[in-house]
Input
Amino acid sequence: MADLELMHALSQPNDTKMVLLVLDGLGGLPMQPGGPTELEAARTPQLDRLAAEGVLGQIIPILRGITPGSGPAHLALFGYDPLVHQAGRGVLEANGVGLLVGAADVAARGNFCTLDATGRVSDRRAGRISSKIAVPLVERLSAVNVPSAEIEIRHVKEYRFAMVMRGAGLHADIADTDPQQTGVPLLAAVAHSDGAQHTAALFNQWIEAARPVLSDQAAANMFTLRGFSSDPQLPSFEQLYSLNAACIATYPMYLGVARLAGMQPLLSGDTPEKQFTTLRAARADYDFVFVHIKSTDSRGEDGDFDGKVAVIEALDRALPQLLECRPDVLVVTGDHSTPARMRAHSWHPVPLLLWAPETVRPDAAAAFGEDTCASGGLGTFAATDLLALMLAHAGRLCKYGP
Output
């Protein structure tokens, strides 16, 4: 695990540029024994060339055998130990849509859902209603208040919203209200500790006050709240590494985790080509740019092997635009594995490619895939060590000791 105090002590500024390209859920599995993974099945001449010129390895996001969520997996990529620095889904979603969350505030992610006539959950995502339908409903919820607390709500995407509660004596140690199944009633907000009893009571008051506001809706007639959390107060990239860092992502949660690390969010379109255009325009202003590609994970969770292959191939076709930016260090990896065969995140190691023409020691790999990464020159290592490796190749770490 990376030592943040050591990284801070050794970090030194210079003019080198680094890009961390994250294909969410990149790691996969063969659909049949002996077959290729999604990455291996994809035609990726650009990535294969970089693999031949660079060095491969694989990373463990949390610990061996532990399946990570996207939030902690990204914190690990940024060098923060996710077992020490914990950021809940609520604070990530809220920060992602510009709702700033203080250390004394409590944020939660909301999902519109559908209750049947008996009050039981019939659809946990309200038929995945569109943003056009959801935005007016969020406006209705914004008018609901409870005594002794200030509440701010903002739409995220489609059926999702974020909320922040501000007030005295708040604590985020509260269980989700989503029962994670249909055919059962919603759960109450229950405190995990005595210190959170008051906060849980306020959330339950707000939930009950909001219930009639949605009662006339056919689908989104209620909501669940998940990921109660506060600002973990991470030391920023500038404080730790003397880096002016930016994030190019299209999904709010990833903008949120980047903001927690002190990265500047950059507006961009939702294709690799548009994201790399944004990168090219920002190259002169930032030392480190995190670029996030979401669709690899989405196709994996859909069980769409061919769709995930297509996303990887589209990324590969766009890579020359990124390389025009001439980064000194480029890493291509994922935050976790999402095999289409499993339709979910998994604990499998994540493929990683490091390309740094001036400093890399190439291995024997000629292609970018799970098998070549498993035998690559970097070996298998903790994701929290990745940033130190990038800084070293960028000449941004001075010698330790005399």
Observations:
- The longest helix spans residues 305-323.
- The two ends are 23 Å apart (CA to CA).
- The first strand starts at residue 18 and ends at 23.
